[in-house]
Amino acid sequence: MEDDWIDANLIEEEYKPYNIKHRAFYFSKSVIEFVNSSKYEKVFYSLFDQLVRSSTSIGANLIEGASGSSKKDWIKFLIIALKSANETKYWLCLIRDTMKVSKVEIDRIIIEAEEISKIIASIILNSKD
């Protein structure tokens, strides 16, 4: 997805955890809270279900990878977490563009998903031999 759809003015200066595992946890929590507060028709159930699954998968794979048996195993879980972060952006954009939801709120979540993707990608690139 292109970065040109992100309005940099939507990024608030707030505390963001330094540890990517903690940041992914708080991100998942914010997605769950967003879904819980959203009102949607039956046709959108699967979109929100997929959004919750992909967003919570990010942190779950980071945690599981941290207890991996080797560096190769750890990187494998990081790659899965990155794929989940990218999938999450897809579902968020689809919801944003097909429903009447707060564009400001969902764009903030998309920006955080993008930042998490970039951090995980950077960790992967800097960890390869």
Q: Could you please describe the fold and organization of this structure?
A:
With 129 residues, the chain is an all-alpha fold. It has one domain (19-127): de novo design (two linked rop proteins) (Up-down Bundle), CATH 1.20.1440.60. The chain has 4 helices and no strands.
Describe the structure using short key phrases:
de novo design (two linked rop proteins); 4 helices; 129 residues; mainly alpha; disordered N terminus
Could you provide a short overview of the structure?
Helix content is 72%, strand content 0%.
Structural class: mainly alpha
Q: Kindly report how far apart the N and C termini lie.
A: 28 Å
Q: Taking Cα atoms only, what radius of gyration do you get, to the nearest Å?
A: 15 Å
In CATH terms, the superfamily is 23S rRNA-intervening sequence
* Uncertain residue segments: 1-13
Helix fraction bin:
over 70%
Query: How many domain regions?
Result: 1
Q: Order of SSEs, N→C?
A: HHHH
Strand content: under 5%
CATH topology: de novo design (two linked rop proteins)
- List how many beta strands DSSP finds: 0
Number of helices: 4
Average predicted local confidence, pLDDT: 86
